[in-house]
Amino acid sequence: MLTFSFLTLFPELLAPFAGEAIIGKARDRGLLDVKLVQLRDFADDKHMKVDDTPYGGGAGMVIRVDVAERALASLSPADEVILLTPAGQPFTQAVAEELAQKSHLAFLCGRYEGFDARTEGLVTRELSIGDFVMMGGEAAAACVLEAVARLLPGVIGDPDSHRADSFSSGLLDYPEYTRPPEWRGQSVPEVLRGGNHGAVALWRRRQALERTLARRPDLLSGAELTPQDSATLLELGVTAQQLQGWNAPPPPRPKRARRRKNIDANEQSE
């Protein structure tokens, strides 16, 4: 069981997110645990003050390193102590898969002007969910919780479903359809209704390649491409030079026409 511990000034922001839907059900079934730790419980004065003005002047307040240290010390040892910060490593599907192998993750969720810089010495990893600034780390921590939790065994219904998700293979996901088959002049692709699973798999792979090429071509350099993928990308207008830049394997060679085995004896004698 993986335990997520969130050290925050606003545990009420994370409580509903961690208690509903799939994550809430997973907690009820003992597949994961979520602990919400109020940083104010580790203040050293009667006013429960956790922050102070920055040395050198400037706007805003800074959360004290000693408060963060005491809060972390109250936990059982964590495999990773993670600070949510715009300066952190970009959070990706690969990082989520790595964190899903751990047993205890502790998250420091900042507010105001963030944590005293000396807090960085208490963490093992800094993560960012994007190049933008929010009012605190709780929303970012919720994103990490959901991305990691769904990878744990038993949390989602089909244990193989996440392997086809966007980014799991380095590509965006293929488009999905359901009923009704016709809606405002738009039809579900016939291949998806034909019952040919092989044809469906080929169509989905082509759609994933086409979507990634159109929307996130930067992902193709790190995708797990096959020779057939290279052939498909060439059909979609990619150049051989682009394939080389992405380290894609060469497309399959065209098959040579087979010679007739049974050649007339008179032809042989000629």
TrEMBL record:
CDD domains: TrmD-like. It catalyses: guanosine(37) in tRNA + S-adenosyl-L-methionine = N(1)-methylguanosine(37) in tRNA + S-adenosyl-L-homocysteine + H(+). Specifically methylates guanosine-37 in various tRNAs. The lineage of its organism: Bacteria, Thermotogati, Deinococcota, Deinococci, Deinococcales. Keywords: Cytoplasm, Methyltransferase, S-adenosyl-L-methionine, Transferase, tRNA processing. This is tRNA (guanine-N(1)-)-methyltransferase. S-adenosyl-L-methionine binds at G110, I129, G130, D131, F132, V133, M134. GO terms for molecular function: tRNA (guanine(37)-N1)-methyltransferase activity. Homodimer. Gene3D superfamilies: 3.40.1280.10, tRNA(m1g37)methyltransferase, domain 2 (1.10.1270.20). It is an enzyme of class 2 (transferase). GO terms for biological process: tRNA N1-guanine methylation. It comes from Deinococcus marmoris.
